[in-house]
């Protein structure tokens, strides 16, 4: 992953290394496969009464248009029966968005303008 950071972005390398060090004491659970199609299955393992949080930046812009719509549909389906928070940018535009479902009710907010590599953001409200 470090190789994905542009060499001249020295601050990003520093932040990445700090984050990578924290994973030594709190390793994430990695699941191999297509996250769009696996989302529903993974959500089944999250206890009911627990909010589901989906976070990504600069990943969904790599997805084909159909996969983006499939991701949104899967999140909407989950949101009918679970509380879900989807925080992301670089999917439809460069803004930071929060789509969330509480008690089956959907809300969508654009929160901030962002620099494509996360160096800065500017709150919209």
The N- to C-terminal Cα distance equals: 33 Å
Radius of gyration: 16 Å
Shape: globular
Mean pLDDT: 92
Q: Spans of 5+ residues with little confidence (pLDDT < 50)?
A: none
Q: With helices defined by DSSP (H or I, 4 residues minimum), what is the helix count?
A: 3
Along the chain, the helix and strand elements come as HHEHEEEE
Count of the domains: 2
Task: Please indicate the percent range of residues in DSSP E strands (runs of 2 or more).
Answer: 25-35%
Strands side by side in the biggest sheet: 1-2-3-4-5
Instruction: Give a quick account of the main beta sheet: strands, pairing sense, barrel closure.
Output: 5 strands, mixed
The share of residues in helices is: 25-40%
Total number of strands: 5
Structural class: alpha+beta
Characterization of the model:
The chain has 125 residues and is an alpha+beta fold. It folds into two domains: 1-28; 31-123, no CATH class. The protein has three helices and five strands. The chain has helices at 10-25, 35-44, 65-79, and strands at residues 52-57, 84-89, 96-102, 105-114, 121-123. A five-stranded mixed sheet has the order 1-2-3-4-5, with helices on one face. α2 runs parallel beside α3 (65-79). The radius of gyration is 16 Å and the shape is globular. The chain starts with 9 loop residues before the first helix and ends with a strand.
């Amino acid at each position: 992953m470090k190789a994905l950071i542009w060499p001249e972005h020295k601050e990003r390398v520093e932040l990445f290394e700090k984050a990578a060090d924290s994973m030594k004491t709190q390793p994430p659970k990695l699941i191999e496969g297509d996250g769009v199609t696996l989302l529903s299955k993974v959500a089944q393992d999250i206890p009911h009464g627990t909010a589901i949080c989906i976070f990504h930046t600069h990943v969904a812009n790599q997805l084909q248009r159909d996969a983006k719509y499939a991701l949104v549909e899967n999140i909407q389906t989950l949101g009918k029966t679970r509380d879900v928070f989807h925080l992301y940018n670089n999917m439809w535009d460069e803004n930071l968005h929060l789509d969330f479902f509480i008690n089956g009710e959907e809300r969508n907010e654009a929160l901030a303008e962002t620099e494509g590599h996360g160096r800065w953001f500017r709150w919209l409200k």
